Amino acid sequence: MTAALSSVGPPDRETSAARDRIPFSDADFQTIADLAMRDFGLHLTTAKRDLVYSRLLKRLRNLGLETFRDYCALLTGPQGEAERTAMLSALTTNVTHFFREDHHFKLLREVALPPLIKSAREGGRIRTWSAGCSAGQEPYSLAFTVLGLCPEAGKLNLRILATDVDSEILAKAEAGNYPEEERKAIPEAMRRFIEPAQNGFTIGGAARDLITFGKLNLIENWPIAGPFQVIFCRNVAIYFDKPTQSRLWARFGELLAPEGHLCIGHSERVAGPAELMFRTVGVTAYQRLAGAKTASSPPSAATALSNFPNRLEGHEK
Ligand SMILES: C[S@@+](CC[C@H](N)C(=O)[O-])C[C@H]1O[C@@H](n2cnc3c(N)ncnc32)[C@H](O)[C@@H]1O
How is 183-209 classified by DSSP, letter by letter? Predict the structure, then answer.
């Protein structure tokens, strides 16, 4: 299934020893796999059983639980929602860095952004979205790229929405503080948008001001006002099964403006009915066809996204 999930090595010795002590039944695994699919679209095949065990053993320890049965009871109980997100965090990776897959930023700089900035300067509304933004390096790289072309972007109707399902990682993104070693991934010309801080650097106000952060689960309802001219959703759909991925591409297609750009992760491909909505314009980069038909699908059953409506007001400001 996922490059990210399978990148983890075999369980360590301590985990193997613990395996003898803490039983992990088929029913436990199935409960976890069903919840991961239901809540996050996370596709856990039985091939991932050892990985699920070793990753979640750490959660059991942190929570002081002695059996996976107790852990499943917690997940399915009234207090389970927060732990289900912690479980997702434990099972997936938040790996990201500034200007990751730089070809997408080149595409932005050279092709996508110049006409959008022209339009914004003439009063147009421009919206971009980093969906699955992890610790924030992706939306900040977007903001730096915008500011590099348009230093006055903050005065225009140009906003970047940055969302993730994991509130903890989202808080890090919003804080915008990074260790010194991450500086080298930021091109020199863009370093004027960061400022020195204790043990590293922090994101400067011009870039921060362009971004609205919000919690959003991509497999649920999206209380978001489109259209977007650019959507980045990179290295997130790898966690989903094929039907969930297909639905996601189609939903992005519906939310994109005609000729809007969609950039996805290096091991992902737009597939399914949405293929008819896009043309390929680069490596894992797509453009929505101007005349593409959308198959307006009804929103999926939504659970409460408690803080998102307020965030959206920010997004629209
Ligand atoms: C590997 S990071 C990718 C970060 C960034 N997009 C990049 O490519 O560098 C994957 C992110 O997807 C988020 N994620 C996983 N499932 C999600 C879901 N159902 N809805 C929204 N975000 C999700 C995770 O919390 C994580 O922060």
Answer: GGGS-GGGGGGEEEETTEEEE-HHHHT
Mutation choice for ligand 1 from 165, 172, 252, 264, CB with most ligand atoms inside 8 A: 165
pLDDT tens digits, residue range 19-31?
Answer: 557 899 999 999 9
pLDDT tens digits, 262-288: 999 999 999 999 999 999 999 999 999
Confirm whether pTM is higher than 0.85: yes
Say how many Å lie between the CA of residue 100 and the centre of ligand 1.
14
Query: How many helices and strands (H and E) does the chain possess?
Result: 13, 10
Residues lining ligand 1, Cβ inside 6 A: 4, 40-41, 92-96, 100, 132-134, 138, 164-166, 169, 217-219, 234-236, 239, 265
Do 3-91 and 103-315 agree at the fold level?
A: no
Active site residues: 55, 164
Positive or negative, the CA dihedral 89, 286, 113, 145 is: positive
CA–CA distance, 278 with 286 (Å, rounded to integer): 6
CATH C-level class of 103-315: alpha beta
| Domain ranges, ordered by start, for the chain | 3-91, 103-315
Query: Between β-strands 228-233 and 256-264, what pairing exists: parallel, antiparallel or unpaired?
Result: parallel
Determine contact, residues 134/174, Cβ cutoff 8 Å.
no
Q: Which fold has domain 3-91?
A: Chemotaxis Receptor Methyltransferase Cher; domain 1 (1.10.155)
Q: In this structure, which residue's CA is closest to atom 13 in ligand 1?
A: 132
Cα 94 to averaged position of ligand 1 atoms, centre (Å): 6
Question: For ligand 1, atom 2, which residue shows the shortest CA distance?
Answer: 94
